[in-house]
Amino acid sequence: MKYLDEYRDPQLAKSLIESLRRRVYTKDEIRLMEICGTHTVSIFRSGLRKLLPPQIKLISGPGCPVCVTANEDIDRAIWLAGQPGVIVTTFGDLVRVPGSASSLNIERSKGADVRIVYASLDALEIARQNPGREVVFIGIGFETTAPTIAAAVKQASLSGVDNFSVFSVHKILPPAMRALLEAHEVRLDGFLCPGHVSIVTGSGIYEEVVENYRVPCVVTGFEPLDILQGISSAVELVESGRAEVVNMYRRVVTREGNAAARKIMDEIFEPTDSTWRGLGPIPKSGLGFRREWKNFDAVSRFSMPEIKVKEHPGCKCGEVLRGVMTPPECGLFRKVCNPQDPKGPCMVSGEGTCGAYYRYYQ
Question: What structural domains does the chain harbor?
């Protein structure tokens, strides 16, 4: 499909929708998974699902970094918040995610010093202002946030701030994509890949998935028209039997990505085994500290005990993240689980699939 550097042209959007509707499909169903929470929300907010022909099915995958954070890591963050003299800093959504028996928000109400920050450098500034206390930043996110957190760690080293550490639960997308395809729980004909991750990593990171699994990957932006172009491109690839990486977000994404961001991320972190909510342990799917930076690793700095993890009975966030079921199929959805009283992270996060269904699904 020809790349069009337009993303707010209603006539072009109408033309793409009409083209998809007129198309004679060789498949009964084309199943595309978006692996980006921002895509999920944009798709719902714009009503794209209702505009597409019935042959195209969009499946929401593990694209929300808060949602894929394993329960055991939420419990470890809660444990850190309970340590004397510790200030835990994190992004806003994470404080409301329920762990096995509590949440960071509940612990804060009991007196724990848990602070919401908007950037890792804010956490570093809190460490500067509180030299007598340990400040831990809970580092979540995909390759999008990892470079900024790596930069904060490097700045802490350069400026001699030794009471700052990071509990890294960062995730890397391609290993999760491989895990989804190898599980064979859900048939996937193609992926819609996240634009913001790809800005950092480059579109080239999906080439191994395409080569080994013969599933097309289309990088796209977040405006409804961006997503429509991505869907059209993916449909064209599936229908023609071509497995390729196509970059439909060329105004900001290149094949190589952001060299400076990748360099600092690779300087501080290295791939490590990681546990994903719903997907379980996936080899080399996370980012851990390199040996020479271990003094900024909260796991190394604190002797964390073994924590007995307990999942909320009835919560189907794991199945939702794998695309096995949709939120309305969960027995808790709307009945006892809602944004005001969430039972799982997919309802907590602004990028969560359950929250998107709750707000926009009729």
Answer: 28-64+183-247 (3.40.50.11750), 66-172+257-301 (3.40.50.11740), 317-360 (no CATH)
